[in-house]
Design goal:
The structure is a single chain. By secondary structure, the protein is mostly beta strands. The protein contains no helices and 15 strands. The strands form 4 sheets. Strands 2, 3, 5, 6 and 7 form a 5-stranded antiparallel beta sheet that branches. The protein is elongated. The termini are far apart.
């Protein structure tokens, strides 16, 4: 007994996300990461069905805010419409401060899809597809029918590789 404490109010960041048509705003995740290092553990918040979010429990500091989704085919972005952590605008918080209006309008991502025919003896389950730029790789798998989809692609030009792996097929480029 006698172990008493006085809690200190943490800071928070809140805002509203506008999602593209056909995307449920509740599928968007929001994270706040220390502005000095994109790989540090972040603080997370979820959006509701109207796109509003709040990230609570933040200590004083400077944060970069990422808006992303792993299932909605929207482009991830950092606060103030940046495509990378380095380009994102930091939000500075003092102890207990509530900062509102950290909003984002997300854009629909591109998709590359198709169907591959394979001769008898080729195991399509072992084939993979790689969609590439000079700096980035995006991956997909084939279904048993040979159809594939690679989503969450930013605008740009891509090379597509159909990787034979151990399927019995040769690797081919499109």
């Amino acid at each position: 007994s006698g172990i008493n404490a006085t809690l200190v109010k943490a800071a928070s960041i809140s805002g509203k996300i506008t999602a593209p048509a056909g995307v449920d705003p509740a599928d968007i995740q929001v994270s706040a990461r220390g502005a000095g290092n994109s790989w540090n553990m972040g603080y997370y918040g979820s959006t509701n069905d109207t796109g509003e979010y709040t990230i609570k429990g933040l200590p004083a500091g400077s944060y970069k805010i990422e808006f992303s989704s792993y299932s909605s085919n929207v482009l991830a972005q950092w606060y103030k419409n940046a495509s990378s952590f380095e380009g994102g605008t930091a939000v500075a918080l003092t102890s207990g401060q509530d900062v509102a209006g950290i909003d984002a309008t997300l854009a629909k991502a591109a998709t590359i899809s198709g169907k591959v025919a394979a001769p008898e003896g080729v195991d399509l389950a072992a084939v993979s597809v790689s969609v590439q730029t000079a700096n980035d790789f995006y991956w997909g798998q084939f279904d048993v029918e040979g159809s594939y989809t690679v989503s969450d692609l930013p605008p740009g030009s891509y090379k597509v590789a159909f990787l034979g792996n151990n399927s019995g097929a040769m690797t081919q480029w499109y």
